[in-house]
């Protein structure tokens, strides 16, 4: 059934100069469900796995409870939800069931009290069990995992459970509240699972409501599933790098690249939220003329129509020219994505070194720092001067920098 999705591309330069050497080319690929899918609403199957240890006392637990009750209110009777709380033990306070007794569910949430330590894997095990309790056709199976601290002695078990979740198509969406949670572990758990996403930072407890709203809306918006983006390359075109740039920035690594092909799993495609990937290619010298430098293909499933392995393709061409004026023209949108992906890469390098050693030797140039907000610039300058910054600042910098592309600037003079 054609028309469920658009696959579009833009290139950094429509015209490349005829030269004697290889040249770098940028290709921006974007996939997004069409208006045809606007009314699609698949059933949700949520497991909310919540840290209620002693450190959650006060504003954190109070705001999280209100956020969970809001999420319950947003569910349809055809949706399923379960709630697991953990400290150094775990308890299922709402077993997986249809969301048709909202007052009873919210009363159970109100009874949550802070207590104990933090053993996150116990909550994850119970959450996965609840998600698998029912066979719900076409359900969006997601665990929302929230903590404010460092799990005790079971980090490897948490990583394994994330792999187990990925194997059965369950996405884990990790939320860290406050400044004391293990950023590296929560990032790995989320990215290893079917969600593929790093942890979301709830910097202030009052932000919990908004973050939980985003979580439920994201699940409601899923229209297409199991999307994969493939870029096939002709002889003379070599893949160099692939970076996810929307909905957030993530270097996809060398594992997605091969000699003549780039293969990128995108997973769920949401209405009103494109997924975009920036590709760097090296082009061998070409004579004057129009050349195809790749063919993109998007494969995907349409669960509500029972369709599996649907596909759409898009040819990518550039013109090689001896006209210097044409060859000098650049696409500002593509180059803005490239600029912000580069800024994310360099800021991540600074943060990684700082977390390892307490200092940073990488110096960021003005063309990098200019795309960062003032708070981030100031914190990075403190690091450059050999000063220490707080864990709150470290997490904030990482969280904001990966979202740089959610606001694009016009880079034209």
List keywords for this structure.
413 residues; alpha/beta; 6-stranded mixed sheet; 5-stranded antiparallel sheet; 11 helices; 31% helix
Please characterize this protein's 3D structure.
The chain starts with a strand and ends in a 12-residue tail after the last helix. It has about 425 residues and is α/β, with parallel strands linked by helices. Strand 5 and strand 6 form a beta hairpin. It has helices at about 60-75, 100-110, 120-130, 155-165, 185-190, 210-220, 325-330, 330-355, 365-370, 375-385, 390-400, and strands at about 5-10, 15, 25-35, 45-50, 80-85, 90-100, 140-145, 170-175, 200, 220-230, 235-245, 250, 260-270, 275-285, 290-300, 305-320. The protein is globular and about 75 Å long. About 30% of the residues lie in helices and about 30% in strands. The strands form three sheets. A six-stranded mixed β-sheet has the order 6-5-4-7-8-9, sandwiched between helices. Strands 1-3-14-11-12 form a five-stranded antiparallel β-sheet, covered by helices on one side. Strands 2-16-15-10-13 form a five-stranded mixed β-sheet. The protein has eleven helices and 16 strands.
């Amino acid at each position: 059934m054609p028309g469920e999705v658009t696959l579009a591309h833009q290139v950094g330069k429509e015209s490349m100069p005829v030269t004697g050497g290889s040249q770098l080319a940028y290709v921006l690929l974007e996939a997004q469900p069409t208006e045809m899918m606007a009314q699609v609403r698949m059933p949700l199957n949520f497991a909310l796995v919540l840290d209620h240890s002693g450190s959650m006392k006060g504003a954190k637990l109070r705001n999280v409870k209100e956020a969970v009750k809001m999420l319950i209110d947003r569910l349809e009777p055809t949706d399923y939800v379960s709630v697991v709380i953990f400290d150094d033990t775990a308890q299922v306070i709402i077993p997986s069931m249809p969301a048709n007794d909202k007052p009873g569910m919210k009363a159970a949430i109100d009874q949550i009290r802070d207590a104990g330590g933090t053993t996150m894997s116990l909550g994850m095990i119970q959450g996965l069990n609840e998600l698998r309790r029912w066979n719900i056709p076409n359900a969006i199976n997601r665990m929302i995992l929230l903590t404010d601290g460092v799990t005790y002695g079971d980090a490897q078990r948490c990583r394994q459970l994330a792999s187990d979740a990925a194997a059965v198509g369950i996405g884990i969406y990790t939320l860290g509240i406050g400044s004391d949670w293990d950023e590296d572990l929560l990032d790995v758990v989320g990215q290893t699972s079917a969600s593929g996403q790093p942890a979301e930072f709830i910097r202030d407890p009052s932000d919990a409501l908004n973050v939980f709203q985003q979580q439920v809306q994201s699940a409601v918006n899923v229209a297409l599933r199991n999307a994969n983006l493939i870029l096939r390359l002709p002889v003379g075109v070599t893949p160099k790098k692939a970076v996810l740039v929307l909905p957030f920035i993530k270097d996809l690594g060398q594992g997605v690249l091969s000699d003549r092909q780039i293969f990128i799993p995108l997973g769920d495609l949401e209405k009103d939220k494109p997924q975009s990937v920036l590709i760097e290619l090296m082009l061998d010298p070409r004579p004057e003329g129009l050349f195809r430098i790749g063919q993109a293909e998007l494969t995907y499933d349409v669960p509500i129509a029972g369709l599996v392995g649907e596909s759409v393709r898009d040819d990518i061409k550039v013109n090689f020219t001896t006209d210097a004026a044409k060859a000098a023209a650049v696409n500002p949108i593509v180059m803005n994505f490239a600029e912000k992906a580069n800024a994310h890469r360099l800021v991540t390098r600074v943060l990684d070194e700082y977390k390892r050693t307490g200092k940073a030797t990488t110096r960021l140039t003005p063309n990098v720092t200019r795309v960062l907000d003032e708070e981030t610039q100031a914190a990075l300058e403190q690091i450059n001067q050999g000063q220490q910054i707080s864990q709150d600042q470290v997490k904030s910098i990482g969280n904001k920098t990966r979202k740089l592309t959610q606001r694009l600037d016009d880079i034209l003079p």
